[in-house]
Write a structure and sequence with these properties.
Layout (H helix, E strand, L loop, with lengths): L1 H9 L5 H49 L6 H17 L5 H22 L9 H23 L15 E3 L4 E3 H23 L1 H11 L1 H6 L4 H27 L10 H11 L4 H21 L7 H12 L10
Antiparallel strand pairs: 1-2
Helix pairs in contact: 2-6, 2-9, 2-10, 2-11, 3-4, 3-5, 3-9, 4-9, 6-7, 10-11, 10-12
Length: 319
């Protein structure tokens, strides 16, 4: 064997054993990179849901000073609304992207007018306890009727299949979720921060007496703002339904992480929630690849570190 390798070397050829080993190394490296890209994609998808949900929380807290612990349950209601629209009314995915957020948003506005409005001016703890109780009731009702198992929701025909990007295979629906979520987040930021309506919303929360003097109906604006935040949660639920199935406890699995995202980005910070949501999704995906054991805790470790360095969050303003 050594003579054959020496002859091959003198002829300028790589020994067969070395070539085989090199091919194996290249193959393993290719598999490792594909796994890395796959985890990055999963991280981007999770980050899309984190961003949409934390954006809704930031809108509600920033505008209304309510810590809305029912956000996860309303996210679940958005998914169930899409499921009912498809299986009961025959309304597919595309109309559900509009109808489900409106229906759940109206439900949220009813909650705000009948319960949450009475907490105005009270400590944040009262809102947290009330919305936590609401979340338990909503989840309990759905779990009583539908159990804990997931209900399937089909991907629309237009978004089935995938694209070969050369370095990885990208499912079209997952790519759509990332792009659409980013567009919705940026449009919401623009609405709140760059339009007259957004200026009126901010003014109504900072100085409601002055805003009333200009003839603006402040209670109605507050109710619509809560409906907007809840509608964003419902929209995330519709986007999630084909990926994670429809389950009564799907919101409970996410809400703690989403609260951590809001805290890291800065309570009430719109852009902070968007950036932090996507970034933490990617970090979580990378952690699953390099150190899977820490993937479930990395977000909370980062939250503790941020709070130690800057208690107001990365983009939040000090009280």
């Amino acid at each position: 064997m050594r003579d054959a390798e020496e002859i091959a070397g003198s002829a300028g050829l790589a020994p067969a054993g070395i070539t085989w080993r090199d091919n194996e190394i290249e193959r393993e490296r290719s598999i490792d990179m594909q796994a890395l890209y796959a985890q990055l994609l999963v991280g981007l998808i999770n980050g899309s849901f984190y961003a949409l949900l934390s954006l809704g929380l930031a809108v509600i807290f920033g505008m209304l000073n309510i810590i809305n612990f029912a956000h996860g349950a309303l996210y679940m209601m958005g998914a169930f609304c899409a499921y009912f629209l498809l299986n009961v009314a025959g309304i597919g995915y595309w109309p559900a992207l509009i109808v489900a957020p409106i229906v759940v948003g109206i439900f949220g506005m009813i909650l705000e007018r009948t319960m949450l409005q009475w907490l105005s001016g009270l400590d944040h703890l009262y809102g947290l306890l009330l919305t936590f109780g609401m979340a338990l009731i909503i989840q309990g009702v759905f779990q009583n009727y539908f159990g804990s198992s997931g209900l399937p929701y089909a991907i629309p025909d237009e978004l089935k299949g995938g694209m070969n990007l050369g370095f990885m295979f990208l499912p079209i629906y997952r790519g759509w979720v990332v792009i659409f979520s980013l567009i919705v987040c940026l449009l919401t930021w623009y609405l709140i921060e760059r339009t007259r309506l957004g200026a009126n919303l901010r003014a109504a929360t900072e100085n409601p007496t002055l805003v009333r003097a200009f003839g603006i109906n402040v209670p109605r604006m507050i109710t619509l703002t809560y409906g907007l935040g809840v509608g964003l949660a419902a929209l995330a639920g519709v986007l999630s339904a084909p990926i994670n199935q429809v389950r009564p406890l799907m919101g409970a699995d996410l809400i703690i992480v989403v609260f951590a995202v809001v805290v890291i980005g800065g309570m009430g910070s719109i852009m902070g929630s968007i950036i932090t949501g996507f970034a933490l999704g990617v970090i979580e995906g990378l952690t699953k690849y390099f150190y899977p054991e820490a993937s479930n805790t990395v977000v909370f470790v980062l939250m503790v570190l941020v709070l130690l360095v800057k208690p107001s969050g990365l983009t939040g303003r000090a009280a």
